[in-house]
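Bug report (template v2)

What were you trying to do?
Predict the complex of my protein with S-adenosylmethionine.

What happened?
Run completed; filing so the output is reviewed.

Input:
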Amino acid sequence: MARKLDQKLVEDLVDAGSREHYSDAALYDYEYRRRRADVTFYRELATRRFEGPGRILELGAGSGRVTVPLARDGHEVVAIDQSAAMLSGLRARVAKLPPAVANRISVLSGELCTFSAPGKYSLVIAAFNVLEHLYTRGELDACLRRVAAHLAPGGAFAFDVQLPDLAWLSRDPNKRWAKTRFTDPSTGRATYYSTNHDYDPVNQIALIRIYYDPVDGKGPSRIVKLTQRKYFPAELEALVAHAGLRVAERYGDFFWGPLDSSAESQVLVCERAEPRRKTARRR
Ligand SMILES: C[S@@+](CC[C@H](N)C(=O)[O-])C[C@H]1O[C@@H](n2cnc3c(N)ncnc32)[C@H](O)[C@@H]1O
């Protein structure tokens, strides 16, 4: 079912695909308003890792879906993202919080491969497929090395990415999938949502198109690009090790269940790998 892709087109779509889906924070918040299990997972993880409140660095924090509950739990959170729209959504959300909670959140504009945040952190997180916006081995390696540089001794990096679904990847790119009707919170208009995608199996990149069509057929349709790098589990473990980290815990959902063939997500908790001891050479 896959069709041949022009590599120049893939490169153009990769940049747009890490930005367009995040250009409307109100729509993003509406689309993912029922996604709660991952928030509970990251809150429980913080409780397990800290004896009391701790310092958390959050990469790709977006509009603060996970940031705010963590701050409400008493943690200090430094939230980094590259999207101006998502960060202004987060700042607006922070402005409505009680001052004691708001004061625990710092919002920074930054990029996954080059970010820098003050201090060291016992927990760094990247929730909800954030690392799927790193499209090459070099980009993932750069990001993981920035993470390692920000980890306090004994600290952990927790993130989730999807488990590649072979049936989904090979869906017909010409059909519309997941068609749903909703009211767009930004425009107030009745809208049909649907998606389709091409998959580049060499670079392991899914080029997703999200269609927003007015139900009354009046006015233009909108097509939003969302581009995701797919990671296979054994590959991901090797990439993590290459950056000097090790997978300490691995789950297949947000309920601490095992990663198996029924899983939708790969949820990893990584720690810094112990440096290898040099073995004495025999003479
Ligand atoms: C799926 S959203 C997740 C947002 C938030 N973590 C959540 O759980 O709702 C991915 C986020 O990653 C951000 N992002 C994508 N590429 C990025 C990059 N190269 N550097 C920094 N942030 C990036 C997007 O702007 C977006 O806010």
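What did the reviewer find?
The chain has a mean pLDDT of 94. The chain has two domains: 7-17+166-229, 35-162+232-272.
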